[in-house]
Amino acid sequence: MSDSYETISEHMRAFIERQHVFFVATAPSGADGRVNLSPKGLDTLRVLDERTVAYLDFVGSGVETIAHLRENGRIVLMFCAFSGPPNIVRLHGRGEVIESRDARFEALAARFPAAPGTRAVIQVAVERASDSCGYGVPLYEYQGERKQLALWAEKRGPEGLVRYQEEKNAASIDGLPGLRWVDKPAK
């Protein structure tokens, strides 16, 4: 059974903060657009208050979440218990992209450990928080964080990351505009 709330309770917050992985889903407005679902890990998520969460978004080969949020703002984050008592928490809301070149970026990014390759902070105004049993989620043992993302970003360096984003993050796979600072028309 699922229960829903208007805010993130302290119990939910504690559960969210214990998780090593979470999932983010967005979709474009049109019926023909592709839904995007992305796993997230590392120390990248913060509960800012009972109605707001934020997470770091890293340079990658796609820009779907950013493009979808720019178009319609809809987002859901899901947290699953892979150890301990079964539980699933979903946070539905409206997302906002604060890119690394935006004036508000530094203050938000300061809430997280410094991480090479950070291109934005995604801030979510939570409209609905729900939890459910999670009985069907398997048990897994956490072994640690992967180092490849940081090594990849460090190897490219700041200039290489800019070129990569210009090439890969101008538009979504459906042609929606991606990063605002990348001055290229959507394909």
Could you explain how this protein is built, in words?
It is a single chain. The chain is α+β, with helices and mostly antiparallel strands and 187 residues long. Helices cover 23% and strands 32% of the residues. It contains 4 helices and 8 strands. A hairpin with a 2-residue loop joins strand 4 (45-49) and strand 5 (52-58). It is globular. The termini are far apart.
Number of strands: 8
- State the CATH class: Mainly Beta
Count of discrete structural domains: 1
CATH arch. level architecture: Roll
Low-pLDDT segments: none
The Cα radius of gyration reads 17 Å
- The CATH homologous superfamily is called Electron Transport, Fmn-binding Protein, Chain A
- Strand-residue proportion: 25-35%
Q: Average pLDDT across residues?
A: 95
Spatial separation of the terminal alpha carbons = 44 Å
| Element pattern in H and E | EHEEEEHEEHEH
Q: What's the CATH topology name?
A: Pnp Oxidase, Chain A
Question: Main β-sheet: number of strands, strand sense, barrel status?
Answer: 8 strands, antiparallel
Count helical runs: 4
Estimate percent helicity: 10-25%
Key words describing this protein structure:
single chain; alpha+beta; Pnp Oxidase, Chain A
Short description:
The protein has helices spanning 10-18, 64-71, 105-109, 148-168, and strands at 3-5, 22-26, 36-40, 45-49, 52-58, 74-80, 88-99, 118-132. The chain has 187 residues and is α+β, with helices and mostly antiparallel strands. Strands 1, 2, 3, 4, 5, 6, 7 and 8 form an eight-stranded antiparallel β-sheet that branches.
